[in-house]
Amino acid sequence: MTKRFMRGLPALLLVLALPATAQTADANGTVSKQVATASAHAGMALGAADLATAHTHLHHVVNCLVGPQGKGFDAKAGNPCKDVGQGAIVDAKGDAAVETRLRTALGQAEQGLKTTTLPAAHADAKQAMETLQAK
What percent of the chain has a predicted confidence (pLDDT) above 90? Predict the structure, then answer.
């Protein structure tokens, strides 16, 4: 019986590991989608013709990064990441490098929201987009 158990142990371990692997893969896909959407909106903010539009897209970046329960989330600004996880930063928990990169991009987007000129908003949007696209 011990021999049979030992032969079946690798298969048992594989079966037990599959749900955890599937969750990790799903979480990574969710984070990637949110980051791609945030990056696209940073690009839209960079290309905005006026400050109000730039700020709207920077809010979208913030909303995708922090999620509906996060600090700085503004439902009035819209949430292009609705139904795609809990916010990229929340969903990236456990991956310190990704979290750090996302928090940096968040700070850049938040800085852009404080700007009073379009060139300054563009500069912060560009930084946020580059940070989000970095690997």
Answer: 78
